[in-house]
């Protein structure tokens, strides 16, 4: 058989699996987006502008610190699993899981205790306890969901954790709205923490079952440790993930500090609507981190190319559809949360272009982090955060939320361009949507040769 035809035949088989996985990832992400949209809408309508602003600040602070508390393990556990399963190293896999578990629990204590003290002093002891419990459960669920995504599948890894963090809160706020009762921040974060704890227990059960299936003698195996290597990787990934989290949550906190909680609540809503485009980014992340490490460490580069081509096509479709939706109906979407947010359509459009640029970079960040180039990724994210913070402090006082949107979008655009360039240079793989240009050229050459 002609090698070119053999490659195309093999790629068609891979694409069938890729399409199924991508469809599942996008369906899950769409479901998560709808549930988060419902949560934020109900919170905005039941809490009032001022209290909702405080909710936005606490939610953003807990989200940022929950990622800091993982100390890089959410990404590292995926690499551990793929690398040690591929190499048949049950002893190192067991040691690495014990290492990651100990690091995560330590991180939750080191981050959670001072946060509880601050939150209690700033608000109340009940709010402090509830938000701190939410922070801890999110941190642990985030780490285990990444591991289960790789070990079992996207649906098991991301489905339980994400939905159980939001559905109890939606139910509570829906009850308060129907019964015309005032929702309380402590109760809201408390039910979110309870849902996260349930998701964590499910993840641990799935992990035990997967270990029993893949390594029947796992529990009798003596663990092996490579602490110096793991600590070095953890440090880089911890810094990278912390800075990456800053890109998700920091601007809301800065807006609250420079303006007021009500403005922070408005900016929180605007960023959530702009994150319609994160359906592409997050689905790509879920899907890519499920498959990239396995394909990379097994050196199945033809299948990896086929996967990335499919990701790029779907990403372009989502970006175009999302931008058109926001341009045409952005004001109406903002008004769903509260009519006071509708005038921020301009800021929403600006933020949407920033989100689109990150989506267009595709799994470039995953390629760097999962293939041993986490140090390069750290430098890219660090530069982006610095640019973002400087822009926010310069533009927010003079131009309000529109200035904040400009600063954020400029930083995201710069980050997307550098990520694409870095991934291509350091891994030899084009992860952005620009890879389709090369594919079209390759297809033309094949047709001409035929």
Question: Would you tell me the structural class of the helices and strands?
Answer: mainly alpha
Shape: globular
DSSP strand count: 0
Number of helices: 14
Provide the residue-averaged pLDDT: 81
Taken together, the total number of domains comes to: 1
Major beta sheet, specifics? none
Q: Topology as H/E string?
A: HHHHHHHHHHHHHH
Share of helical residues: over 70%
- Cα end-to-end separation: 14 Å
Low-pLDDT runs of 5+ residues are 1-18, 440-450
State Rg: 22 Å
Strand content: under 5%
Please describe the structure with a list of short key phrases separated by commas or semicolons.
globular, disordered N terminus, mainly alpha, 450 residues
Written account of the structure:
The protein has one domain. The longest helix has about 70 residues, at about 5-70. It has 14 helices and no strands. It has helices at about 5-70, 75-85, 90-120, 125-150, 155-180, 185-215, 225-260, 260-275, 280-295, 300-335, 345-360, 365-370, 375-425, 435-450.
Gist of the model:
The chain has helices spanning 3-68, 73-86, 90-122, 125-151, 154-179, 185-214, 227-258, 261-274, 278-297, 301-337, 345-360, 364-370, 374-427, 435-449.
SSE layout and pairings?
Blueprint: H1 3-68, H2 73-86, H3 90-122, H4 125-151, H5 154-179, H6 185-214, H7 227-258, H8 261-274, H9 278-297, H10 301-337, H11 345-360, H12 364-370, H13 374-427, H14 435-449
Helix pairs in contact: 1-4, 1-5, 1-7, 1-8, 1-9, 1-10, 2-3, 2-4, 2-9, 3-4, 4-5, 4-6, 4-9, 5-6, 7-8, 7-13, 8-10, 8-11, 9-10, 9-11, 10-11, 11-13, 12-13
């Amino acid at each position: 058989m002609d090698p070119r035809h053999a490659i195309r035949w093999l790629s068609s088989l891979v694409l069938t699996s890729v399409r199924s996985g991508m469809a599942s990832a996008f369906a899950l992400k769409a479901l998560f987006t709808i549930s988060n949209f419902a949560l934020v809408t109900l919170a905005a309508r039941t809490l009032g502008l001022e209290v909702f602003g405080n909710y936005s600040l606490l939610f953003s602070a807990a989200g940022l610190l929950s990622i800091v508390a993982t100390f890089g393990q959410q990404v590292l556990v995926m690499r551990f699993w793929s690398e040690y399963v591929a190499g048949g190293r049950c002893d190192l896999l067991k040691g690495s899981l014990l290492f990651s578990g100990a690091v995560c629990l330590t991180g939750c204590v080191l981050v959670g205790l001072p946060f509880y003290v601050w939150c209690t002093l700033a608000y109340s002891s009940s709010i402090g306890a509830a938000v701190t419990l939410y922070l801890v459960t999110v941190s642990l669920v985030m780490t285990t969901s990444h591991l289960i995504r790789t070990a079992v599948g996207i649906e098991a890894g991301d489905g339980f954790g994400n939905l159980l963090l939001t559905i109890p809160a939606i139910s509570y706020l829906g009850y308060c709205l129907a019964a015309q009762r005032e929702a309380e921040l402590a109760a809201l974060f408390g039910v979110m923490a309870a849902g996260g704890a349930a998701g964590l227990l499910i993840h641990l059960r799935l992990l035990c079952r997967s270990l029993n299936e893949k390594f029947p003698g796992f529990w009798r195996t003596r663990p092996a440790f490579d602490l110096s290597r793991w600590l070095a990787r953890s440090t880089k990934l911890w810094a990278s993930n912390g800075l990456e989290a800053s890109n998700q949550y920091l601007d809301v906190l800065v807006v609250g500090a420079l303006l007021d909680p009500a403005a922070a609540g408005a900016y929180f809503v605007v960023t959530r609507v702009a994150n319609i485009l994160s359906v592409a980014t997050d689905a790509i992340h879920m899907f890519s981190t499920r498959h990239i490490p396995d394909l990379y460490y097994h050196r199945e580069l033809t299948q990896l190319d086929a996967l990335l081509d499919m990701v790029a096509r779907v990403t372009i479709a989502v970006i175009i559809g999302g931008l058109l939706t926001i341009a045409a109906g952005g004001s109406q979407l903002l008004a769903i949360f509260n009519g006071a947010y509708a005038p921020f359509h301009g800021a929403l459009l600006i933020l949407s272009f920033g989100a689109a640029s990150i989506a267009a970079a595709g799994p470039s960040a995953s390629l760097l982090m999962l293939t041993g180039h986490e140090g390069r990724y750290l430098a890219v994210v660090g530069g982006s955060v610095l640019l973002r913070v400087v822009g926010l402090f310069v533009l927010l006082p003079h131009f309000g939320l529109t200035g904040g949107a400009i600063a954020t979008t400029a930083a995201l655009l710069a980050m997307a361009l550098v990520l694409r360039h870095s991934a291509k240079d350091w891994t030899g793989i084009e992860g952005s949507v620009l890879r389709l240009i090369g594919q079209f050229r390759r297809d033309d050459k094949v047709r001409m040769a035929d």
